[in-house]
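FORM 7B: Structural annotation worksheet

SECTION A. Query
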Amino acid sequence: MSLKAHAQGSTCPPTKPGVLRLYSMRFCPFAHRTRLVLHHKNIPHEVVNVNLKDKPDWFLALNPLGNAPVLQIDDKIVVESTATSEWLDDVYPENRLQPSDPYRRAWDRVLLEYMGKLTNGFYSAAGSPAAELQGKLDEIMKHFQFFEDKLRERGEGPFFGGSKPCMFDFFFWPTFERYPALAILQDSPAARLDPQRFPKLTALGKAMERLPAVKAAGLDAEKHSVFIKGYLAGKPDYDLFLEE
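SECTION B. Predicted structure
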């Protein structure tokens, strides 16, 4: 199946009975979460990519919110990154990612809620004029400090899940993977994460990069920066780097 994004006027590829399908966008950090879970748990699936700026009618019929990710298998449809990821963890329970301890699970939900500050801060800084960049970076570093402190408090590591990644590690990673693109976009070494200030997050990043799921679903900072530059200019190219 082609990885090129389906836009308005396209026809939805026919589904197959019993085959799990992910409607995605290759550069979407939220769909990235679900792709990580699919790869980490080795769940067989197919992918249909969607142009999120010029959405097909058939995609809006599946998800009137018009965002990715969307999972479909037969007559079941699940939307939104956390819902799809947690549903996958429940339906395919091997290699469980959600914590069994209620307190840890509650705190992972708190961390997830806080993630919005970091993600919004990243995209705000990516499109910021040079005169405003340092103020944006100061805010981002406050958010990174929050996660650095939480990793230290857990006293485990290198993951938020301890010696093995948990669901929140995969919710956190897409923004963390994209963060190095900020220094490229702004041509600013000040945007880089200081490993001396953030040793726990630095160790987390190295551990995540070794995971097969991260290798399978990820892109490097240069590729992220090219897409984000087009996205911020209102001209996202959803088929970047595809040879087909």
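SECTION C. Observations
The chain has a mean pLDDT of 97. The chain has ten helices and four strands.

SECTION D. Sign-off
Analyst initials: ____
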